[in-house]
Amino acid sequence: MDVTVFNQILNIAFEKKVSDIHFEVDNPPMFRARGHLIRSKLGNLTRKDTEFVANAVMEQHNRKLPEDLKELDTSYTLANVGRFRVSIFRQRGSLGVVMRVIPHQIGTFEELNLPPVLGKIAQAPNGLILVTGPTGNGKSTTLASMMRFINDNFDYNIITIEDPIEFLFASNKSCIIQREVGIDTESFTVALRSAMRMNPDVIMVGELRDLETVDSCVKAAETGHLVLSTLHTNNTASSINRIVGYFPPPAHENIRQRLAESLIAVISLRLVRGKKDETILPVLEVMYATSSIKACIRDNKLDEIEQYIEKGRDEYGMQTMDQHLIQLCKAELLTLDEAKRISRSKDLERKLMYS
């Protein structure tokens, strides 16, 4: 591996519109495209090859690779081409690197096949908005699209706190300050404390990872700011459970009360293969915190939330994941088999038949 080959691989990733590149010992470089992992025709990588890639990434930040490194998240920019989110890790004593391709342009809701109700949600003057889903299922892209909507339509002061910075925003109507943990600030918690003194209207936090970050984000939402963040959870109920679980048991009732007052919406995503197998489509559960759902959160009746989401489709633009899967199947954009693979319901086929 040398600089020329490395740059060629990165260029190919953008040309072929792949989502990820894998550099791992004893395997050739691999690309994930339209959900499939594809092995390149290059030879298997050696320990020196993956070390070269890891060091090339670190050199761009004027940092050396720590000798005791176990895992590290950072970013990489290829001049005049694009950016990557980078995960460096050890496996069986060797270094591995996975690079997530970050698109040049931040898509609109329409371009990304996202429902327009996300624009209504993003217009909330304050509160907490969560974008959730498994790794690699479009959380960052969806969050960036919502930030673009806010930036294009409102004259706000927006502060983002990320680890690492992914999409680069250019200020439009809003003023945007982007801070990276480890480079511009010590931690999410420290950056959130500082953000409160920086006259923010909107705060975007890359991920809710720990009690201190969760508590700081809820406090910011409670004090009149719009806060957006992500969680690795599958739906509204699991997201609320995850947040409550960060707190000690004596504080559970209190945090449920706080969430009932501050939570605006939860948007949960999965990416699925379209019917033509060449397209990737987002499937969403969209929860807007109505008074009934707020009561469910307060009273810890989370198993009732889905029925309120289902009933709130016409009035609030909410939808369950099954409702969206059925919509895509009826539009012949998705196969029933793929829909059943994603659905947590055992009677999706019956729902489709009677919808």
Write the layout of secondary structure elements.
Layout: H1 3-15, E1 20-23, E2 30-33, E3 36-39, H2 47-60, E4 71-78, E5 82-91, E6 94-102, H3 117-122, E7 127-132, H4 139-153, E8 157-162, E9 175-180, H5 188-195, E10 202-205, H6 211-222, E11 226-231, H7 236-245, H8 252-262, E12 263-273, E13 280-288, H9 291-298, H10 305-311, H11 313-316, H12 321-330, H13 336-342, H14 348-354
Parallel strand pairs: 7-11, 7-12, 8-9, 8-10, 10-11
Antiparallel strand pairs: 1-2, 1-6, 2-3, 4-5, 5-6, 12-13
Helix pairs in contact: 5-6, 7-8, 8-9
Structural commentary:
- With 355 residues, the protein is of the alpha/beta class.
- The protein has two domains: 3-102, 2-Layer Sandwich (Beta-Lactamase); 117-319, 3-Layer(aba) Sandwich (Rossmann fold).
- It contains 14 helices and 13 strands.
- A seven-stranded mixed sheet has the order 9-8-10-11-7-12-13, sandwiched between helices. Strands 3-2-1-6-5-4 form a six-stranded antiparallel sheet.
- Strand 4 and strand 5 (82-91) form a beta hairpin.
